[in-house]
Amino acid sequence: MADSERLSAPGCWTACTNFWRTRKGILLFAEIVLCLVILICFSASTSAYSSLSVIEMILAAIFFVIYMCDLHNKIQIINWPWSDFFRTLIAAILYLITSIVVLVNERNHSRITAGVLGLIATCLFGYDAYITFPLRQQRHSAAPTDPADGPV
Question: Would you call 143 helix, strand, or coil by DSSP?
């Protein structure tokens, strides 16, 4: 009895794979991987700019778990769409500034690679901010209209 209930109930793995296939899940996973690659590139040359990649990777992983476990619908204290929007917008701005600084002060190949990947991360985080903008997601329904014949 317990085995049949366990197999029929949607589990954590099902929730993970269902969220993984959404556009937001793909974006968050791409952000985590890109931040990890940028962290590796910065660590190979200097650790001066690696804190941005670490913080953004951790925040993207936290939001991935929150959306995957459907906690954004269960915890209503925080406005999750606005939090995610500001997270991605600030990350895009910081990656743009950091990438420009790194590319202007080029010293070795790993820093140049990190700068170029930072520009790609700017585009990725900017696109994520664009699709998560809460006011863009609000849908307006058509107002009911009166019959053309007049009042009934």
Answer: coil
pLDDT 10s digits, 71-96: 888 888 888 889 999 999 999 999 99
Task: Classify the C-alpha dihedral 81-78-22-41 as positive or negative.
Answer: positive
Cβ neighbours, 10 Å, residue 134: 13
Rounded to whole angstroms, the Cα distance separating 119 from 113 reads 10
pLDDT at 134: 76
What DSSP string runs through 50-116? HHHHHHHHHHHHHHHHHHHTTHHHH--SS-HHHHHHHHHHHHHHHHHHHHHHHHHT--SHHHHHHHH
Which burial class, exposed, middle or buried, applies to 126 when counting CB atoms under 10 A from its CB (0-12, 13-18, 19+)? middle
Q: Where are the domains of the chain?
A: 19-132
Q: Give the C-alpha separation, 69 to 12, whole Å.
A: 8
- Tallying the residues shown for the chain, one arrives at 152
Instruction: Say if residues 52 and 98 touch (Cβ distance below 8 Å).
Output: yes
User: In this predicted model, what pLDDT tens digit does every residue of 108-129 receive, in sequence order?
Assistant: 888 889 889 999 999 999 999 9
